[in-house]
Amino acid sequence: MIIQDIIKEIEAFAPLNYAEDFDNVGLLVGDKNAEATGALITLDTLEATVDEAISNNCNLIVSFHPIIFSGLKKITGKNYVERVVLKAIKNDIAIYAIHTALDNQHKGVNDMICEKIGLVNRQILIPRKQSIKKLLTYVPIKDAEKVREALFEAGGGSIGNYDHCSFNVKGEGSFKGNESSNPVIGERGTIHYGEETQIGITFPAHLEGKILNAMFLAHPYEEVAYEIYTLENTNQHLGMGMIGELKESQDEKTFLKSVKSTFKAGCVRHSALLEKPIKKVAVLGGSGSFAIENAKSAGADVYITADLKYHDFYKAENSIILADIGHYESEQFTKNLLYSFLTKKFSNFALILAETNSNPIKYI
């Protein structure tokens, strides 16, 4: 097995198309075609992480955070980023980062936080826009079923809890092939009229190449007529943050103390308590100040995130409790999520869960 085989499965789970524009995801260091000896799963890639990979004979590090975030003009070892890259290259270790592609995944970072807290009725807090596309194509009636099934097999026509979804309209098509054409129906140089089915399906944006390839292979025509649109619909299974409900309401202090214990937080910084029970909870792993208004609009009683600044807490405005549990603490279980996923895909391959604690923040 080569490193690319592992990457392929990761990106099927969390497509890189859905990472945020500012992010740096994918294979950051190494050769994707190298034979894989083992993979170390981690939250961060530090020098100690590379040492751990070496000691476990792993030539791939699958990291949540990217060690290379902005451009490197020199690699001389003057800071921790350059030293990590140098050590990885010297020891033929590849580094792969998934970051916000996993943040936006429905069963990703924030779903793991909800699981730890025990939230039910979970929904995406900020559903992703412009991530759903629509395909229209025109097929002879006798070939419509074959083309539809090919599109479904490629992942088209799935909407929420439903699949094999399409809309079909029968009509009359026409065409005339020139002297270089080789028409399946009719003759070149003559206008042909025939009954066709217009097939319409929606599909996730990241599957466009696969959808088109399936259509071209199944379609009988030499030249396939088709249209693709990007829809304005939000994707309820893709996006930042989540919101859910506790099975039973909890007292504010009881809830916050429980969260502190569950996430082993050195402290929980929070806005003023409101003297009312906690039932509806919004979460967003990592730096989440940008979603405060979304949590308030969704009717959350408390919003759990990290990296809130002094003035961010004023935005609570006595309508919600803002709780900062720490960046590392909010994302610490992400490596367990990746490890669990990969062990199911590669049961006979050496996958190691990193033991290095990469939290740079300490508490007295």
TrEMBL record:
<dbReference type="InterPro" id="IPR017221">
    <property type="entry name" value="DUF34/NIF3_bac"/>
</dbReference>
<dbReference type="InterPro" id="IPR015867">
    <property type="entry name" value="N-reg_PII/ATP_PRibTrfase_C"/>
</dbReference>
<comment type="similarity">
    <text>Belongs to the GTP cyclohydrolase I type 2/NIF3 family.</text>
</comment>
<dbReference type="Pfam" id="PF01784">
    <property type="entry name" value="DUF34_NIF3"/>
</dbReference>
<dbReference type="InterPro" id="IPR036069">
    <property type="entry name" value="DUF34/NIF3_sf"/>
</dbReference>
<keyword id="KW-0479">Metal-binding</keyword>
<protein>
    <recommendedName>
        <fullName>GTP cyclohydrolase 1 type 2 homolog</fullName>
    </recommendedName>
</protein>
<dbReference type="InterPro" id="IPR002678">
    <property type="entry name" value="DUF34/NIF3"/>
</dbReference>
